Amino acid sequence: MAKTYSISELARDFDITTRTIRFYEDQGLLSPQRNGLNRVFSARDRARLQLALRGKRLGFSLSEVRELFELYDVSQGEPRQMEVFLAKLERRRTILEQQRKDVEIMLNEINFFAGQCRRRLKEHVDGGAGEAAA
């Protein structure tokens, strides 16, 4: 018999809320079976949840994750699905590299202004100490 998972087990395993899992289900990313009022998730659902969470960490939107799932479901790993996935990865890499450059620029600006503030504070303290001694 195939292993199944409750929504609580998946939430605990992936350190997410049951609400997140229900949301992913509503978005069509997961398709649990029902046992009365309880959701019963398959190993396939668990793998899809893991991939969806990974996709989110990589910066893919849920609609992009769903598109990849749909491509996979239709093509079962055909070259077209891999080409689309590779193109999405390359676009995401380009965005992340630009964001990294932007962060470096912002950090340099923060360091510059923080240095200026420290110098001015030191001048103020040194100047104030001289006035107090006079």
Q: Describe it for me?
A:
By secondary structure, the chain is mostly helical. It folds into two domains: 1-76, Multidrug-efflux Transporter Regulator, Chain: A, Domain 2; 92-134. It contains five helices and three strands. The chain has helices at residues 7-14, 18-26, 43-57, 62-75, 79-133, and strands at residues 4-5, 33-35, 38-42. It has a three-stranded antiparallel β-sheet. A hairpin with a 2-residue loop joins strand 2 and strand 3 (38-42). Helix 1 (7-14) crosses helix 2 and helix 4 (62-75) runs antiparallel to helix 5. The longest helix has 55 residues, at 79-133. The model has no long low-confidence stretch (mean pLDDT 88).
List the helices and strands and how they pair.
Layout: E1 4-5, H1 7-14, H2 18-26, E2 33-35, E3 38-42, H3 43-57, H4 62-75, H5 79-133
Antiparallel strand pairs: 1-3, 2-3
**Poorly predicted tracts of residues:** none
- Count up the helices: 5
Percent range for β-strand residues: 5-15%
Helix content: over 70%
Cα shape: elongated
What integer is the average pLDDT?
Answer: 88
How many strands appear in the DSSP assignment?
A: 3
What is the level 1 CATH name of the largest domain? Answer: Mainly Alpha
Taking all Cα atoms into account, the compactness measure Rg is 26 Å
Q: Please state the structural category.
A: mainly alpha
